Amino acid sequence: MKSLGGDALNTEPPFWSARPAQKEALKPVPGISAPAPPVNGAEHRPGIMAKAGYSSLSMKGSIWRKVLIQSMLREDSDVQDDFYREHGCRCESWTQLRYSCYRLVSRKWFEYLMGLIIVANALAVGYEIQLSLSHIADWMFWIDFTFVMIYLVELTIRFLAWGKKCFLDPWCILDMVLVALGVLSLFTNSVGVQVQELESLLVVRSFRLLRLMRALRLLKQFRTVWRLVSGLLTSANAMLSTLVLVILTLYIAACLGIEVITKDASLSQTEETAGIVSQYFGSLFMTLLTLSSFVTLDSVAPIYSPLITEKPSLTLYFFFIVLFVSVALMNLVTAVLVEGALANASADKELEKLDLREKLQNEMPRLLAVFGEIDRDGSGTLTMEEMSLVPIDIIPEELRAKSNISTMHDVFEMLDVDGGGELTREEFVDGLLNLFLHDVPATSVQTLRLLRSVDNKVNVLADQVRQLQYPGRGLHRRQISIVSSRSDSTDLHLGSA
């Protein structure tokens, strides 16, 4: 098998039947990608996309899109290859067991099944807590025992599949801790020892629901929920910084409040404000605790209204506290959390791969049908004349709405990068995927046209110079130049323009 940059060949035997030398060749070399597939006229080896009715694409897009196109028809042999790249060992009896576990945890339904078990366990924990207020039924012990055994089996399967990587995955570490607490709780209950602290700590078993949301994030209906959960999980630094800033601000305000409120003799001697000063501003700690209610504006009017009435200059003091802490700081924290959640959502590469996979699955068969309608002579290639005979409406409207292309002539010029005057089926399909599945600005389209025009003029000038230097040989060199330029043309990735 080639590395991620090339075509995955389904004609290769399973990895366990290959010779050791062949296995070494199958391993991808870090930092080195497979060579790009040949251009027009070159021989293509049959790839995974041949099952969809066409040969492997001469891909000009990103490595992600190449891998996604290959994985659209993912088979069991691909899982075997992934397992071999992970562990690099033969499929003997022990390795066969590990491969079976790896194959099991690679399925989506396994995550969803464990998610349902986690939900059932969370409901059982809540029901058990409710029963603990009156009495504890003996059968609840066996329910806990069943769930703990299921989690132990799950952890065993994941450890066999992933090996030492389990100790590097935060979710697996969380599962190990929770399962260890569950086993310890069952042991203490079985020997008749009740540990109240341990029982209270077992409530954190409900945190396994976060892993359920992580599995459900691949479904469109739950992506918003995952963004919220992910934003909370990744905003610990922002919340800690906010807490430090709030405490520092309130501490400074409390010190200032002692000077302007507690030490003010007129406020302490007035009947309406004396009780407020002694109750809410009697010490530095009480003043700090009172000002903390200004963070959420929790019924603070009865506190500052009598003080401002008696001493109007305190308006500035309370005004800056409300403005800085309640309004500015809290809204700033909200903005930081939202920005972090959006950044994490956009950086979730697995979701991007899933979205791109869905687009490819929806649009690729339609583009193949479009190619068949345009290629009326059945030659397997498209020319400018054939493209000009059909309207732009033949392209699906969903694709045309995402581009700045208005005519089929423009489409042909954009796809015919090497200037050969013909488009193969691979160039047509892959080029349209690049052109329409990515946002291509109009300025990029115009720039490419100008570069094409400049390239043609430079070639004409080069021919004229050669004819002056070598009379009678200019045409021959021009032909050599055309062949060389086609074979060495650089792939243009329109999506990154």
Q: Could you characterize what this model shows?
A:
Keywords: Calcium, Membrane, Transmembrane, Transmembrane helix. This is Scn5a protein. One of its GO terms (molecular function) is voltage-gated sodium channel activity. 66% of the residues lie in helices and 1% in strands. It has four domains: 90 residues, no CATH class; 110 residues, Voltage-gated potassium channels. Chain C (Four Helix Bundle (Hemerythrin (Met), subunit A)), CATH 1.20.120.350; 111 residues, Helix Hairpins, CATH 1.10.287; 145 residues, Recoverin, domain 1 (Orthogonal Bundle), CATH 1.10.238. The chain is built from 23 helices and two strands. The N terminus and C terminus are likely disordered.
Secondary-structure element series = HHHHHHHHHHHHHHHHHEHHHEHHH
Span between N and C termini?
31 Å
Sheet having the most strands: 2 strands, antiparallel
**Class per helix and strand makeup:** mainly alpha
Question: What is the fold named in CATH at topology level of the largest domain?
Answer: Recoverin, domain 1
Give the strand content: under 5%
Strand segment count: 2
Oligomer: single chain
Helix-residue proportion: 55-70%
Stretches where pLDDT is under 50 for at least 5 consecutive residues are 1-78, 474-478, 480-497
Number of helices: 23
Shape: flat
Order of neighbouring strands in the sheet with most strands: 1-2
User: How many domains make up the 3D coordinates?
Assistant: 4
Q: What topology does this entry show?
A:
Elements: H1 20-26, H2 63-71, H3 76-87, H4 93-105, H5 108-132, H6 139-162, H7 170-190, H8 196-201, H9 209-216, H10 223-233, H11 236-262, H12 265-269, H13 271-280, H14 284-292, H15 301-310, H16 314-346, H17 349-374, E1 381-383, H18 384-388, H19 397-400, H20 408-415, E2 422-424, H21 425-436, H22 442-469, H23 474-487
Helix pairs in contact: 2-17, 4-6, 5-6, 5-9, 6-7, 9-10, 10-16, 11-14, 11-16, 13-15, 17-21, 22-23
